[in-house]
Amino acid sequence: MVEGSTTSQREVWDRKYSSHGSPWRGAYEGFEVPDLGFNYRILDLGCGTGKSMPSKGDVVGVDISKVALASYLVATHSSKAVLADAANLPFQDSSFDLALSYHIFDNLPDDIRKRAVAESLRVLAPGGTLQGIVFSVADLRFGKGKQVGERTFVRDGGIFYHYFEDGEISELLSGAEERRVEKQKRYGLRSIIEFSKII
After folding, report:
1. Is the pLDDT of residue 3 over 70?
2. Which helix (H) or strand (E) holds 171?
3. Residue among 94, 80, 56, 70 at smallest CA distance from 22
4. Residues 45-101 pLDDT 10s
5. What's the rounded Cα separation, in Å, for the pair 89 and 192?
6. Is 47 helix (H, G, I), strand (E, B) or coil?
7. Residue 20: its pLDDT value, please?
8. pTM confidence score
9. What stretch of H or E contains 191?
10. Number of helical H runs and strand E runs in the chain
11. Which has more pLDDT, 36 or 119?
12. What is the CA radius of gyration of the chain?
């Protein structure tokens, strides 16, 4: 099985969620999800267990992990969860007003990242927004694991971690707004890049 294939990544993420329950803390403090009201269609891409799910809107959670989606359905009391690969979304063009991507593009192999970005933009309606967070090269974990590409490493049982340079996400998204946010923690510097792209 190929290390970055959909099948192998599904197994990696199922193992992660099976052994850690909810390994991620959710949305970063200070990261604002636009309040679009209750009627807006929102794609929670890589929804995990639902920790960063918006409180308003018609939200559909998508994840590659069956284990994560089972927890998502319970935690969010939602019936809208889809098992899917970010590079092959099972939605029609212009299906959503907002797509949220919290650490999705940085957890993908290099060859799949561009396809996932294109798919995220494809499913957005005109005037829709793609908003998210990726790791920055200034993050304390940059360089940890087995290097498998430029600024891309594999660790934690097979999870991909790509660290973005300033301007890289903007280039990938053809002019997205981006902002680096750094927080000094007791164990080192956490560094992310917040981004937003209106199509």
Report:
1. no
2. helix 168-172
3. 70
4. 999 888 777 777 888 999 999 999 998 888 877 778 999 999 999 999 999 999 999
5. 25
6. coil
7. 67
8. 0.86
9. strand 188-198
10. 4, 10
11. 119
12. 16
C-alpha closest to that of 125 among 56, 40, 53: 40
Q: How many C-beta atoms lie closer than 10 Å to residue 190's C-beta? A: 17
Q: Residue with structure tokens 């997205």? A: 176
Dihedral of CA atoms 152, 91, 173, 22 in degrees, nearest 10, equals -40
Interatomic CA distance for residues 65 and 27, integer angstroms: 19
How far is residue 110 from each of residues 19, 150, 159, measured CA to CA in Å?
26, 9, 13
Contact 134, 113 (CB under 8 A): no
**With b meaning 16 or more CB within 10 Å and e meaning fewer, what string describes 173-187?**
beebebeeeeeeeee
pLDDT beyond 90 at 32: no
Task: Give me the phi and psi of 19, to 5 degrees please.
Answer: -90, -25
Determine the Cα–Cα distance for residues 25 and 65; give it in Å rounded to an integer: 17
- Give residue for tokens 């929102």: 42
Q: What is the pLDDT of residues 107-161, one digit of tens each?
A: 998 889 999 999 999 999 999 999 988 999 999 999 999 999 999 999 989 999 9
Domains defined for the chain, CATH in brackets: 6-22+35-198 (3.40.50.150)
Query: Which run of H or E residues covers position 161?
Result: strand 159-162
